[in-house]
Amino acid sequence: HLTFGLGQPGAMADAPGCCRPCATCLLCLYSCQWITAKKEKRKGLRTTKCDCSWFLFLFCVFLFTLVWVYFAIVILNDFHNFNEFIFRQRKLWLDWSLVLLIATAMLITYSAVLLVLALCLQLCGQPLKLHWLHKTLLILTALVVAAAFTGLGIKWAEEWRSARISLQATGPFLHIGIVGGMTFLAWPLASFIYRTRNTGLKVFLLLVYCAVMIALYLAPLGITSPCIMEGNQLPPKPALVGHRGAPMLAPENTLMSLRRAVDCDVQVFETDVMVSADGVPFLMHDEELTRTTNVQAVFPERAALNSTAFNWTDLQQLDAGSWFLERRPFPTVQSLSADDRDQVTKQRIPSLEEVLKAAKQSNISIMFDLRPENHSDYQSFVNATLEVILQSGIPLQQVLWLPDGFREQVKQQAPGVQQVYGRKRHQNEKEPLLHVNLPYQDMSSEEIRQYRQDNISVNLYVVNQPWLFSVLWCSGVSSVTTNACQVLKEMKHPIWLLPSSTYLMIWIVVDCTSFLAILWAFLLLKYV
Asked: Could you tell me which residue ranges the GP-PDE domain spans (predicted)?
C-alpha cells in the first residue's frame, strides 16, 4: 500500500490548528462520507499516490477553468456578434452571454471550492480521499472547458488575438494576482513537504515551485503595455463612431438611434445601406429583414427574401422598433423610460435621404457600407446611392465611403467624399491612404503609433469594453466604432496609466513581499 506519510491514523485528533469538528466537516465535504476520528483511526486512512494524482488533476482543472474565465470576460466585448450569428443560423434570439457567464461561474466555483477544501485538509493533516462523484464532475468540467476552447478556436479564432490584446490591459495586474496566489500556495506546500517522508518528492516539488516563482518574479521584463507611459505622453481621446447609431439605447439603423448617438457626442454615424427593388437606398445591416423588423407578421411568405427584393412601399409598412423591446439585445433596454419605449415602437426603416438630412442638421458625419457587394446590380446600387448623396446637400466631407466596388467611379463623381479603406496600406502605393477602418484585432499598438505618425486616420471596430478602449487610447488610435457610446463618452482618461518608474517600484515591492511571505511560511510551519 503506497502512501506519502500523510493523514496518519489519529491525525484528526492531533492536527495542529484544526479543531476536530472542522476537520471532520472538511473531510466529509471532500470525500462525501462522514468520517469521524474513531472511524479514521479504525480504517487507517492515508493519502495514497492515487489520491495525490487526483489532487494534482484538481489543481490543473482549476487553472484550466480559471484561464477560461479570463477568456469569457475578454470575449464579452464581441458577444453581440455571436448572438447575431446564432440568430441568422437558427432564427432564435437569446443573450448567450448570460448562458456563458452562468456556466462559467458554476464551473470555476465548483473547482475552486473543491481545491480550497483539499488545501485546508492538507493544512489539517487529513487524508485527501476524493469521492468518485467529485472525480466524475472534475473530468466533465475539464471536458466542457476543453470543448469551449476548441469551439472558440474553430469558429471564433480572432478572439485569440483579442486575448493577446487584453494582456496589455491586464498583464501587470495578472502578474500581481498570480504571484499572490502562488505565495498563498506556499503554506499547504510547506505543510506537505514537512509531513511527507519521500525525499525525492520533496526535492522535486521544491525545485518546481522555485522555478515557477523565479519565472514569475522576472515576468514583468516581458510585460508590455501602451498604458505604461508618462501622463504627458497620453494621446488625445479617440473619437467615437456609433455602430449603427447607439444600438444599446435605440433600435439599430434608425433615426432614433442616430439621435441617441448625437446625444453621446458621437462624431460619425456608422451604418449599412441597401437599395430597394425600386431603387431607393435605405438602412439595413442583415440581408434578411427578420431580425430587426416584423416582416414575418406583415409578409410571412416573403420573410426569407433578401432585403433588396422589397420595394420601398413595402419596406415602409414594417415596424423597425418593436423587436428591440421584445428581444432586448442589450441589458440597457430594461432601463428605457416610458417615453423612449413609445418612441421605439414608432421607428420605421429610414431611407438614406432621411438619414443624410438628419446628419446634416446634427453636423455629424456618416460612414457606410453598401450591401450586398456580390449583387448582380451592384453598380446600379452605387449609382442610386451617389445620386441621393449629391442631391441631399450634405457637405461631401461628412460622407465616409467604405465600399471597394466601383471606388474609382465614386472618386470621379463625388471627389469630396472621404475614401475609407478596409485594409492596411501597401508598400509603394500610388495613392497614399488617409483613412483606414479595421477590426481592432488587426492592428498592433506599434502599427497604430506608426500610422499616427504618418497622419493616417485609424478607426477600429467594434470596441465596447472600457479596458479595450483604454488600450487603444494609449496606443493613439484616431477613433473607435462602438455599441456602447454612452459608456465610452463618460471616460475622461484610460482605466489605468502608470509611469514606468512607478511600475518598476510596484514590481519590486510585490516580489519582495512575496519572497518574505514564502520564507515566513516555511519557517513557521517547520516548528508547528
From this structure: 238-492
Angstrom distance (rounded) from CA 91 to CA 290: 8
What is the percent of the chain where pLDDT is above 90?
A: 81
Residue pair 474/494 in contact (Cβ under 8 Å)? The answer is yes
Distance CA 252, CA 234 (A): 33
Helix (H) or strand (E) holding 133, with range, is: helix 132-155
Using 50, 70 and 90 to split pLDDT, how confident is the model at 13? very low
Please indicate whether residue 51 or residue 247 has the higher confidence score (pLDDT). Answer: 247
For residue 105 the three cell numbers come to 461561474
Q: Is residue 274 within a helix (H) or strand (E), and if so which, with residue range?
A: strand 268-275
pLDDT at 279 over 80: yes
Alpha-carbon distance values, 88 to 83, 248, 293, 439, 475 (Å): 9, 20, 14, 21, 35
Nine-digit cell string for 457: 486616420
Q: Are 258 and 264 in contact (CB under 8 A)?
A: no
* Pairwise CA distance, residues 415 & 348, whole Å: 32
Q: Which residue has the higher pLDDT, 195 or 294?
A: 294
Count Cβ atoms below 10 Å from residue 29 Cβ, excluding itself: 16
Q: What Cα–Cα distance (Å) separates residue 232 from each residue in 228, 229, 501?
A: 12, 8, 14
User: What is the bridge-based pairing of β-strands 268-275 and 281-283?
Assistant: antiparallel
> Which residues contact residue 347 at a Cβ distance below 8 angstroms, ignoring those fewer than 6 apart?
250, 251, 254, 255, 256, 319, 320, 321, 324
**The residue type at 262:** V
DSSP 419: E
Q: Give the per-residue pLDDT at 458.
A: 98
Note the pLDDT of residue 38: 53
Residue 2, C-alpha cell as written in the block: 503506497
Where do the H-state alpha helices sit in 346-456?
A: 352-362, 378-392, 407-413, 445-453
Quick one: pLDDT at residue 35? 58
Q: What is the pLDDT of residues 427-468, one digit of tens each?
A: 888 788 999 999 999 999 999 999 999 999 999 999 999 999
- Looking at residue 195, its pLDDT comes to 82
* CA gap 426, 424 in Å, rounded: 7
Give the dihedral of Cα atoms 436, 441, 443, 444; nearest 10 deg: 160
What's the one-letter identity of residue 349? I
Burial class of residue 223, CB neighbours in 10 A (0-12, 13-18, 19+)? middle
| Amino acid identity for residue 303 in this structure | A
Contact 473, 237 (CB under 8 A): yes
- Please say whether the beta carbons of 119 and 191 come within 8 A: no
CB neighbours of residue 47 within 10 Å: 24
